Task: structure prediction
Amino acid sequence: MKIIVADDYYSNRFLVSEILKSLGHEFIEVENGKQALEALERYNDIDLVFMDIEMPVMSGLEAMKHIRESFVYPKSNIPIIALTAHNPGIFAEDCTRQGFNQTLVKPYSIDKIAELLKLYSKI
Ligand SMILES: [Mg+2]
Result:
């Protein structure tokens, strides 16, 4: 799969990217929501977006809403996974209600990410 990893913290991006690399996926790292939109505009073969919620310039929530409302299908429908350190439960529910497909809660692990990608991989 080809995946956008959007997070303002280098160490978070690095960890997710290293896991994706070890699983054999391609990835594009960006630092804020605006750059995530630009990457999604530029490439036509993105399969999924990992989107941190809190980022400068444009938050993950704003970027996700922009994708859902302003991009043309099928890009408007791309799986967007919220990255968060928050406790799951109510927060995760809120994220999916807003338009995220699901949340990935820290700490990230290879098993967690492999399992998640299996759900969204093309057959
Ligand atoms: Mg952040």
Notes: Residues 7-9, 52, 54-55 surround magnesium ion (CB under 6 Å). The mean pLDDT is 93. The chain has one domain: 2-120. The two ends are 11 Å apart (CA to CA).
